[in-house]
Predict the 3D structure of the following.
Amino acid sequence: MVTNAQNPTPNSSQGVAAGTIARRFEYKYSFKSPYLAQKDGTVPFFEYSGNAIASEESVRITPSLRSQKGMIWSRLVTSFDWWEVELQFRVTGRGRIGADGLAFWYTSTKGFEGPVFGSSDKWNGLGVFFDSFDNDNKHNNPYIMSMVNDGTKAYDHQKDGSTQQLAGCLRDFRNKPFPVRAKIEFFKNTLTVMFHNGMSNNEKEFEMCMRVENVVLPKNGYFGISAATGGLADDHDVLKLSVSSLRTLEDAKKLDDDPDSKKVLHDFEEYEKKLKEQKDQWRKDNPEEAAKKVAEDDWDNWFSEQDKELQQIYQGQSAMREVMTDLHRKMDEIITRQERTLQLVSQGKPQQGGGGGQPQIGVDTIRRDEVNAVLANQKEIVSASRDIKNLVSDIHGKTGQLLSRGTGSAQQVAGGGGSYQDQQALRDIRDSVNNLKKEFSQTAQKIASSPCPNSGGCVSTTVLVALLGVQLFILISFMMYRDGKEKAAKKYY
Ligand code: MAN
Ligand code: CA
Ligand code: CA
């Protein structure tokens, strides 16, 4: 079997209901570590140019020097209609503001050095831009946007392409503790971009950035990534470009019957075997570094001793988010169920199959006003939990900023004087987060264990208000802490 129809897109394909789509990893359009680049510096199936440099671990599209341009392109043109790309990258720089950004391309011809994030203008196809620098001074960068071009339009760099974009979203992707990720999916002319903000290494934390229907792209194209710096500069490092082709199950079946595809599978197996041999050889040659690599892959080793507190906060928040997402899903289920019941009650009809017109037991025991009340209650819960989720995200972002500041210059400036207070405050935040985490799990259990609509055992608004209270408390203490820190930092400037 070439296509992976049994396991279709487990955590992607927002565009299509899972289970109706087959994906196949396309290694000839992909790169990732280790052995991203060979010993001679080449990246298999790719060509890079300008200021780009490839290493075993990543491709530095530009270094953080002024006026740099770099790019990397797939050598082969695509032979499939629909695809999904996962991109993992880091944009890092010392300044609070960096420039200029990174672009992902799918175009009918390969780009060459030019003014659009290092690549040529008037392209034919798709560009997804991770634009760090706010050229039009609208205070809306870093920004992610997509732009489709038929070869005639010139990108408006001074206006950040704001009038030319297909869709976009405001997201910070600079200086994150983990690589940020984007999943760009093009299936049946729907373009979906999901974004992972690099605050954790949790697979599940992708969020929707855009979804656009009726997008027309060239039938065959090249994948590319480019980046540029200007008066300001960032390192733009790409760690992974992973392309999968997408097919409907019928098309996947047709492909399976095609003798050519057997050859593709064979080639891929050979390629993987070669890669594995190389990997084993490297481990043998560099036992110390291999052990270090295993250690690096471990979450706990990503942070130095002094960042352990923040690490705990990240983990706590990541767990909270998971619980919240789960709660949302359950509440949506409950509401759907209740709406269905309400519909049945208001129609005054028995449930399916009640041939003799006899109302079914159960349906006539719920009065409409009761159902309304339950429904209103549930809606309130959903909106309250949405507020909580937003607050959690807010704290998440703020601790992120704290980490970047903590590991950057501010910490060096603040020096020993504030460090005891810092630690104390961090400990407070951590404890509060831990408490909140506990409360969330309890709430989740309560909701999960109560057959909500009929027994009336739903979680009460009081519990949610209490949760909000705790959350507010954390937020206030965090803000006080932050203000204190800012004041302290200002003293030194
Ligand atoms: C300068 C110019 C711009 C660029 C910014 C940020 O102002 O080079 O084109 O966008 O620096 O690098
Ligand atoms: Ca810009
Ligand atoms: Ca802007």
